[in-house]
Amino acid sequence: MHFQWYPGHMTKARRMMQENIKLIDLVIELVDSRIPLSSKNPDIDQLAANKSRMIILNKADMADPSVTALWEKYYQDKGFFVARVNSRQGTGMKEVRKLIDKACQEKKDRDRKRGILNRPVRAMVAGIPNVGKSTFINSFAGKAVTKTGNKPGVTKGKQWIKINKGVELLDTPGLLWPRFEDQTVGLRLAFIGSIKDELLNNSEIALELIRFLASSYPGTLSGRYGIEETADPPEVLEGIAGARGCLMKGNELDTGKAATLILDEFRSMRLGCISLEKPEDNLH
Ligand code: G4P
To answer: How many CA atoms lie within 13 A of 107 on its CB side?
Structure first.
């Protein structure tokens, strides 16, 4: 799924977030485990000031587990409750449940001190498009999800999913916008197929991916395509075109086709579990 953002989209998303965030105590922020910083929204810290905060490293099945462990620590050190999850398979949900209870306990203790008893803790899932918010909510809340929004006669309003006795989850996720003004972020979102950057074409994205893989995951390209991966990226791309028989009329190498091929293979994990950024990259 591709998305493009215009100022209008962003203003609307921000307004919705501001409205919904008033109702909740806990923000469950989803990020993509392959790019846990580039897929994180920059303004949420300000929007969610004074709320309990949780980071879900989603699509953990697609990332390099040793790098995901670094991110887990990175966000824990920043004071977040952190869990790694595969929402498609439902793995990690038990841990999420435990962490929500922990996060809520803090809120309940605070309430009790102020004389407020038995008020349910309310949570909301938020994240940029395509990080897996809907998949997560379905997987986490499962059959409890009730959709009543479009039925005639049903009052339009917020739907809350009861997670347990004391916790309710807003059934519609908060939509956040990416840091698309940052080129590196844009490129990484393009690698995972979450942004269509009109300034970059597939070949340019593929060349950048080749450059990254050759230096950070040596052996991946040569292993998959049987080519010499240390050459200049354009030559590597030609090598892949040759190895995979990507040809134009007249038997000329079709590097455009090879670019699409390598991006598809990366996104469908045929190149393995790969993380595109590490905490020490210092992307701030
Ligand atoms: P969103 O609400 O944040 O926009 O994201 P959504 O749930 O629609 O998920 C976007 C894509 O990411 C979906 O794939 C979904 O299956 C996939 N996804 C979500 N969580 C995970 C995960 O933990 N691991 C993996 N591997 N994939 C995940 P899709 O191809 O767009 O749709 P579909 O073919 O699965 O229906």
So the answer is: 22
